[in-house]
Specification:
By secondary structure, this protein is an all-alpha fold. The protein has one domain. The chain is built from 5 helices and no strands. Helix 1 packs across helix 5.
Length: 98
């Protein structure tokens, strides 16, 4: 079955988001950093979905990190509430399509 690794990483990311007890911003950080970001390495993902995964990655790493903070953490910290919600919704949409 194609894109098994990507599907697994997005599913695991969704599990983190669904079970996160507090701030969705921290849930997004953990879900993306620990799981979803690794889906980029799955070369069996259909091209249209792979482009969306790359676009999400660019969005999630758009702010340069500092020494103690990587670009994902810096980006999530700088996001507006609406941007956080949009990123979570995109993760959900991609997960459904994998």
């Amino acid at each position: 079955m194609a894109a098994n690794y990507a599907r697994e990483k997005f599913t695991d990311g969704l599990d983190i988001l669904e079970r996160w007890p507090g701030d969705i911003r921290q849930g997004l950080l953990d879900a993306y950093q620990d799981e979803v970001s690794h889906a980029r390495s799955d070369k069996q993902v259909p091209p249209a979905i792979a482009r969306r995964i790359e676009a999400l990655h660019r969005r999630m790493t758009s702010v340069a990190g500092k020494a103690e903070e990587g670009s994902i953490a810096a980006t999530v910290k700088a996001m507006t509430d609406a941007e956080v919600v949009a990123a979570v919704e995109e993760i959900k949409r991609i997960a459904r399509e994998l």
